[in-house]
Write a structure and sequence with these properties.
The complex is a heterodimer of chains A (249) and B (195). Chain A is 37% helix and 23% strand. Chain A is built from 6 helices and 8 strands, in the order E-E-E-E-E-H-H-H-E-E-E-H-H-H. Chain B has 195 residues and is α/β, with parallel strands linked by helices. Chain B has 8 helices and 6 strands, in the order H-H-H-E-E-H-E-H-E-H-E-H-E-H. In chain B, the strands form 2 sheets. In chain B, strands 4-3-5-6 form a 4-stranded parallel β-sheet. Chain B has a two-stranded antiparallel sheet with strand order 1-2. In chain B, helix 1 packs across helix 2. The chains are: A alpha+beta (249), B alpha/beta (195).
Chain lengths: 249, 195
């Protein structure tokens, strides 16, 4: 069984038996993997406290293709991102990004997705306030959704294919996968020109020049899109916490 | 299935007990005096029948409210919030804490489907409304989920006007800096205090 060394992001952890932990790792070279860290819960474990969600490090894994659960031999810390636990919006948002990666990731290498996830978590952790954290979460989530092949169409109508005028409101058709002219879709959620411009910038990974004008609308757009395109009847568990957390804030 | 297989199977379902240990325990019980096996059986039945959650703090107890909640010599103005009832035993073993407790029954873990609705928060807020509590110590585990849970509770508790504190985190007593992991050392440095 070969021992491989690869950069890895910890997406999820849960205890297994009295002393071990199972982790969902998103690795640079081997995609999404489940590993067992034996003895990780022992007080004097060699893993220490580094096997926490959102941590990044170099993982040494005994990898056997075809096996669902690999064995983690070591984990050298690169970034801990503990700051993500110091804001509810940041925690829920970072969890949402991790959940999208878990639900869509494969065992093939996806370096762009890895980089986006890591960069997204960093921007959330660096956000100055809850509003900035929310914008970083929304931007990061849209980028990941786009990278896994579900980029919503925002330039042209998903029904008639005509370019959407930049100064006109459009409707959001999550089922069809993007925006639609108000004539093609007389009912549905309306997106004003500024919000559409913000959505386009977030999808393309461009920085926002100002705080989101209507953050509630952006949350609703992301929620509708995820539920329609990626949930497949199994709701995103962290989406609820992100939505309620931001509404309470 | 024989009764030996049945007992071995049931024991093997317990945490930390594998098939081999379960078989060893089964044979131990077979060899031991009958009274010993009956005592064990009675103890298991009694614990399931008599132990329940304290109506006030959520601690596991035979009488509700529990012995800690009814102890007049403890500080009733100080409430320590923990994730599980087993955490109470860990704190009690220190002999340093003389306040009350509140058991959340978990921590926020969105990926596992544990949100605010799944936590035992409402009774805590009701307790704060009574006006006796002056400080709440948030003793959730020092993990990302534990921190987020503490932060969530802080947001809920702060409007009640009570003091909210968080247990410290960092290097273990008797530990060695050289062998501590990076996250723990970083947290210890962030939480440094003036001498």
């Amino acid at each position: 069984m070969p021992l491989v060394s690869t950069r890895a992001l910890v997406l999820q952890t849960f205890p297994y038996s009295e002393t071990s932990k199972i982790l969902r790792l998103f690795t640079w070279e081997h995609g999404l993997r489940s590993v067992i860290a034996k003895g990780a819960l022992r007080p004097r474990s060699r893993f220490g406290g580094v096997l926490e969600p959102f941590t990044e490090g170099t993982a040494q894994i005994y990898l056997k293709e075809g096996r669902e659960l690999q064995t983690l031999s070591g984990f050298d810390l690169l970034r801990s991102r503990q700051a993500l636990g110091r804001s509810l919006a940041a925690f829920a948002g970072a969890s949402l990004m991790a959940e999208v990666a878990i639900r869509t990731g494969t065992e093939d290498p996806q370096p762009a997705l890895y980089a986006e996830l890591a960069a997204g978590w960093d921007s959330i952790a660096a956000a100055a306030d809850e509003a900035a954290a929310e914008a970083a979460v929304l931007g990061g989530a849209w980028r990941i959704v786009s990278l896994v092949g579900f980029e919503p169409q925002t330039d042209a109508c998903v029904v008639c294919g005509r370019d959407a005028a930049p100064d006109k409101p459009v409707r959001f058709d999550a089922e069809a996968g993007g925006v639609a002219c108000t004539s093609c879709r007389p009912v549905g959620r309306l997106i004003d020109p500024q919000s559409r411009a913000e959505l386009r910038r977030m999808i393309r990974g461009l920085p926002l020049n100002a705080p989101l004008g209507r953050p509630g609308l952006h949350r609703a757009l992301l929620r509708t899109f995820l539920e329609m395109q990626l949930a497949h009847g199994k709701p995103f568990r962290s989406l609820e916490l992100f939505m309620t957390g931001m509404e309470e804030a | 299935m024989s009764v030996i297989d049945e007992l071995t199977g049931e024991l093997a379902r317990l945490p930390g007990i594998g098939r081999k240990t379960a078989l060893r325990l089964t044979f131990h019980l077979l060899k031991a005096p009958a009274e010993e096996a009956q005592r064990l059986s009675r103890a298991i039945t009694a614990v399931r029948e008599r132990v329940r959650a304290c109506e006030r703090c959520g601690n596991l107890t035979e009488q509700s409210p529990c012995a800690i909640c009814t102890n007049t010599r403890r500080e009733h103005g100080l409430v320590c919030v923990v994730e599980e009832a087993s955490d109470i035993m860990a704190i009690e073993r220190t002999g340093e804490y003389r306040g009350m407790y509140h058991v959340l029954g978990g921590r926020l873990s969105p990926l596992d489907g544990i949100g605010p609705a799944e936590l035992n928060v409402r009774p805590l807020l009701e307790r704060l409304k009574e006006g006796e509590v002056r400080e709440v110590v948030l003793a959730t585990n020092p993990s990302v989920e534990g921190e987020a849970t503490a932060l969530y509770l802080h947001k809920l508790i702060a409007p009640a006007g009570v003091r909210v504190t968080r247990i410290a985190r960092g290097l273990p007593v008797g530990g060695d800096l050289e062998y501590a992991d990076g996250v723990t050392i970083a947290e210890a440095l962030n939480g440094r205090r003036e001498l």
